[in-house]
Design brief:
The chain is mainly α and 449 residues long. It has a two-stranded antiparallel ribbon. A hairpin with a 2-residue loop joins strand 1 and strand 2.
């Protein structure tokens, strides 16, 4: 009789696990900084691949990776604490089968490192984790479950999120989670109106995020009134609210520009009090010539290469950023020639032929605006009149902030919820955008019967 051969634990590869964990710790540290800068989704993908590689290596080691992860977390240097906690939670979610042990780890690390624990769960949570968090009597774990249900857009947990609200979870967070799942309760808009009419910027930002995810034009009059309040001369400022005001103004303008691009652009051109980068994003999303000429004029007058916000306008509207504009060793003349050549090429492709770069004196010359009359009737995106298939074309190549606006715009124009976050794993964002683009192209040009 032939005896059964029991599978054995694969032999360890010397140094592979510890090396990959170290790479992932450093990658996660870089990722946090990249999300605050002008990096693109393609750049984020290069970092996220290190995190995915850790999960792949963990599958080879199985439960044998848990103790080294705990040791790494316990010995982490101050600059590596967040990354080490991320690694430990991510590997536990993949290989720790005892639910109580997993929840205890989440509770202990979440108290000091809530963002990295949230990210580890968002990216790599076990299938049953969200349900267990939502069933927890621990307020911290319950809040974590509410956010996770929304981040992952898991509608099977909608009843548990409603129950969490009754059990004391933050009402605004629960409504945001419901919005991300596409199922808000009947009286949600009443609460959102009250929040927008109040004074709490943090709650208002959460409400604006929910409206951005839901799509359509919900609470448009209330949104306009809110923008009037926070941009008024006697309203909150960057000095009085160093973080909250800029974030609230940006979230509100993202909604307005997505819903009424011409009105939002007109207000910015009239001097609406918003952060400079927010104003640039309004001009980029609108794609109108009256907003582009002042931006081109501003860029040309700078004695430096283009900065991320300016680069994003050029990338989204014109579809290309010449190398001369980002070359730190280049001259002002080289940048001017490249910028004018790019603009004239796109203008010619959209009906304004005959304009040569050397014919431009300055971008705000009324005579130049008259020559570009053919552009008055169109919005430019990727160098062409904007269509639904063009809206997300540049999503991989603009900065994270502008990409988040593109997601809001997609929800607003399709009138359907769009939960995708600009902070999600790059691979998931790319897959979602590519799917949206494919569906849009099929709808625009259906296959023959």
């Amino acid at each position: 009789m032939i005896s059964r051969i029991r599978p054995s634990t694969p032999p360890p590869l010397p140094g592979m696990l510890t090396r990959q964990m170290g790479i992932a710790v450093r990658a996660y540290g870089r990722r946090s900084g990249m999300l605050r800068g002008g990096h693109t989704l393609r750049a984020l993908k290069a970092v996220d691949q290190r995190l995915d590689a850790l999960i792949a290596v963990g599958r080879y080691y199985g439960t044998a990776c848990l103790d080294p992860a705990a040791i790494l977390d316990g010995k982490a240097q101050p600059e590596e604490i967040a990354g080490a906690a991320f690694v430990r939670v991510a590997l536990a979610e993949q290989h720790q089968t005892d639910v109580a042990t997993r929840l205890d780890l989440i509770a202990r690390l979440h108290a000091a490192q809530p963002v990295c624990v949230r990210d580890a769960l968002w990216f790599y949570a076990a299938q049953d984790t969200c349900g267990h968090l939502l069933a927890s009597d621990d307020a911290q774990l319950l809040a974590c479950g509410v956010e996770l249900a929304g981040r992952l857009a898991l509608p099977e947990h909608i009843a548990a999120v409603h129950a969490a609200a009754v059990r004391g979870a933050d009402q605004d967070a629960c409504l945001l989670a419901c919005a991300r799942m596409g199922q808000v309760p009947p009286r949600a808009e009443e609460r959102w109106i009250a929040v927008l009419q109040g004074q709490d910027l943090a709650r208002q930002i959460t409400t604006l995020q929910a409206l951005g995810v839901m799509g359509g034009h919900r609470l448009q009059p209330e949104l306009r009134h809110y923008i009037d309040r926070i941009t008024a001369a006697d309203g909150p400022t960057e000095q009085s609210h160093p973080v909250g005001w800029a974030a609230a103004a940006d979230a509100a303008l993202a909604l307005w520009a997505a819903r009424e691009p011409e009105a939002a652009l007109g207000a910015v051109l009239q001097g609406l009090r918003v952060p400079n980068d927010t104003a640039l994003r309004v001009a980029a999303l609108a794609g109108r010539i009256e907003g582009l000429l002042p931006v081109l004029d501003f860029i040309e007058r700078q004695e430096r290469p283009v900065e991320p916000g300016e680069r994003d306008v050029l990338r989204l509207v014109f579809g290309h950023v010449p190398g001369e504009l980002v070359n730190s060793q280049g001259t002002s003349d080289e940048r001017q020639r490249a910028l004018r050549a790019l603009a004239c090429k796109v203008f010619a492709a959209n009906g304004c032929t005959g304009l040569e770069p050397d014919q431009i004196t300055h971008w705000t010359d009324p005579a130049l605006k008259d020559r570009l009359w053919a552009l008055d009737a169109i919005r430019i995106r990727s160098g062409q009149p904007i269509t639904q298939t063009h809206r997300l074309t540049q999503a991989f190549d603009v900065g994270h902030a502008l990409r988040s606006w593109l997601y809001v715009e997609h929800a607003a124009t399709t009138h359907r919820p769009f939960t995708l976050s600009h902070e999600d794993l790059a691979a998931r964002q790319m897959a979602a955008v590519e799917t949206v683009q494919l569906v849009a192209s099929l709808q625009a040009d259906p296959p023959p019967p």
